[in-house]
Structures are given as C-alpha cells and as structure tokens.
Design brief:
By secondary structure, the chain is an alpha/beta fold. Helices cover about 45% and strands about 20% of the residues. Strand 7 and strand 8 form a beta hairpin. Helix 6 packs parallel to helix 11.
C-alpha cells in the first residue's frame, strides 16, 4: 500500500482549464467578465477616437484647401528644374549638421530658428518668407490654418520637413464710460449723445488681424488717445511642423497694454513660439 501511495504522489495531474472553467458557476467568474467588458469598452473608445480624428483631419484639409496664399519664391522653386537637386543636397557635415529642413516664417525670425535647431544638427535649406494673401477670405483664416497651409505647400515642393508660422494681433473691446452708459439708456435721440465725452463704437470695438503688418501700428496709434492705457492687446504666434506624416503645433503669446503696444512687440511671442516648437520637437524626436 505504501508503494501505491508513493506512485500516486509522483503522478502529474493535467487539468483542462477551459473544461474546468465551463463547469464553474458564472457568478465566480465576475472578474474575468469585467476584464472582457473593460477591453471591449476600451476598444470601442479607441475606434470612436480614430473616427473622430479622421473627421477632424478631413475638415482641416477642407479648410486649408480653400486658402489662396502664395509665395513667389516658392512658385519659382516649383517651376525650376534645378530646385529638386538643390533641396536634396546633403547637409553640411563639416559644420555639424546631419539633417536638412526648410522653413516658411518671417525673414526677421529665421536667424533665431536656425540658431535654436542648429544645436541639434538641423540645417535649413531655405526660408520662404514672402507670403501674401491671394484673396480677401485669406484675412479671415485662423493662424493654425495659415501655418499648416504654408508648411504643407513648402513640403510638397521641397520634400523636406518644414516649420511655418503665422502671428495674429488683436485688441480687446474698450470699456464704455459710465457717463456714456447712462446716456445710451436715454436713447439715441438724447442731446447728451453728441457730447465730447461720447466714444464712437469704432473706438470701443475689438479688433483682430490674422497677420501683423502696417495696419497694427495704424490702429494702435488711432486708439491710444481715446482708450485707457491698460486696454489689452494680444500677439499670438502659431508654429507648425510638417514632414508629410506628422503635424505639430506650438504657440507663443504676449498680452501688452495698449500704451506700450507697437508692431515691434511681435518679436516676443515669435521668440517664445520658436522656443516652444523646438522643445516639442526635441521631445518628439529625442
């Protein structure tokens, strides 16, 4: 008998887990069912997220396809048969560069961008900074749409990863003086509406431009004598990176009192934008 017990102890018992599990009451399998439900829910959420991303991408492409901005230098490169060889040239390894990119930002900011990314081995083949609106509707495009359009257009011609930018300017609505508020309640026919203290709606309205140009200084100079010195103005720069597959956005922003505002303040948000996009690209590409 002792020998038989020893043989039984040495035997290896094989259990069919699927068969064994089928004989267990379902109430004892709640943990596994919860895991299955969680996995199914997660899969459905991922599918919905992918579908929404596809919808957003299609809407984005539709919006930028309606943009008519153009760059004369880019169009010349598109027609030039030697442009392909120029943009395909290898980076200057003697200077420490190991990759070639291109840009479409303001010409006054290109040195800052080259210096920031040059430390990471990025050489810029060229900068296309001569963009102009092609139709009145371009002035109403968002800075994201404009920057994305420029980056995609330059990538299409050069085949190189591109960084493009656009800076907007806005002035927040002014405060209506208390005296004018009481006059407005009396109606437009009241005699007080013609007082010298009455401010025109053109003065009190907010303004927004999707590009920084001569109009900025013109509007600021016109509003300064009639507005509070602390009336808020805002510069916002959008930088877009595009390499044919990946699109990355980053921003720089400055709020400035109207008293100190002029077009030269644009360099502050553009510098922050360049710093932000460089840090984001560093984290993305390592």
């Amino acid at each position: 008998d002792g020998g038989d017990d020893d043989h039984r102890d040495d035997r290896t018992v094989k259990i069919d887990m699927d068969k064994a599990r089928s004989g267990i009451a379902k109430e004892f399998l709640f943990q596994n069912e919860d895991e299955d439900d969680t996995a199914t829910t997660q899969k459905e959420q991922n599918t919905k997220s992918d579908d929404q991303d596809a919808i957003d991408e299609a809407a984005h492409l539709q919006q930028i396809s309606e943009t008519k901005l153009h760059s004369r230098r880019l169009e010349n490169a598109r027609r030039n048969p030697k442009a392909s060889a120029y943009f395909k040239r290898p980076p200057n390894e003697i200077e420490g560069y190991d990759t070639m990119w291109v840009s479409a930002i303001d010409n006054s900011c290109i040195k800052n961008l080259r210096g920031s990314l040059g430390n990471y081995g990025v050489e810029f083949a060229d900068n296309f900074g001569d963009w102009v609106d092609g139709c009145p509707e371009d002035a109403f495009k968002s800075i994201e749409q404009v920057a994305s359009y420029k980056a995609r257009q330059v990538w299409e011609v050069t085949g190189l990863p591109c960084i493009a930018s656009r800076t907007s300017f806005e002035i927040e609505p002014g405060k209506v003086p208390e005296k004018q508020q009481s006059q407005s309640q009396m109606g437009p026919g009241s005699s007080g509406m013609m007082n010298r203290g009455y401010l025109s709606p053109r003065v009190l309205s907010g303004y927004r431009f999707n590009d920084v140009g001569l109009a900025v200084d013109y509007v600021v100079d016109a509003l300064k004598p009639l507005s509070e010195p602390t009336r808020v103005t805002r510069f916002r720069s959008c930088y877009c990176f595009y390499d044919g597959e990946m699109e990355i956005f980053d921003y720089g922003e400055l709020d400035c009192d109207l008293y100190y505002c002029n077009s030269l303040r644009t360099f502050i948000p553009t510098s922050f934008g360049i710093k932000g996009i460089c840090q984001t690209l560093q984290l993305t590409f390592g």
